[in-house]
Amino acid sequence: MASSLRNLQSKAGQASQFVAKHGTAYYKQLLEQNKQYIQEPATVEKCNLLSKQLLYTRLASIPGRREAFSKEVDYVKQLWKNKQDLKVEDASIAALFGLECFAWFCAGEIIGRGFTFTGYYV
């Protein structure tokens, strides 16, 4: 246990050294590549305008999202009606999706408890 902790500390130290060495260059490169998205001048008024645009754009996209969701639900209903024609690939994709939903639920529960594992004694 102690050796794995030292190993983890060593790797964390190496990662922080790498970030300290290359972080500034990466930051400048990232800004240069995405300069078309940078709003000049960056004023409070402009930031408020952009946040309102984002909010109302997202609100305007809700009907389209709802329509796409209803199409997906209709597709699943159709699959359920014809479950005898269900292929192994479709069943495995559905099982993986269910497993992923369960994993996200478990992760959310752990995060909600403050990253504590209840019922386990370590």
From TrEMBL:
Supply the alphabetized keyword list.
ATP synthesis, CF(0), Hydrogen ion transport, Ion transport, Membrane, Mitochondrion, Transport
- The reply to whether Glycoprotein figures as a keyword in the UniProt entry is no
Q: Which GO terms describe its molecular function?
A: proton transmembrane transporter activity
Give a GO biological-process term: proton motive force-driven ATP synthesis
What's in the GO CC field?
mitochondrial membrane; proton-transporting ATP synthase complex
Task: State whether keyword Ion transport applies.
Answer: yes
Main subcellular location of this protein, as a coarse class: mitochondrion
Tell me, what's a Pfam family for it?
ATP-synt_G
Where's it found, cell-wise? Mitochondrion membrane
Q: Which family does it belong to?
A: Belongs to the ATPase g subunit family.
UniProt protein name: Mitochondrial ATP synthase subunit G protein
Organism (species):
Lupinus luteus
Q: What is the lineage of its organism?
A: Eukaryota, Viridiplantae, Streptophyta, Embryophyta, Tracheophyta
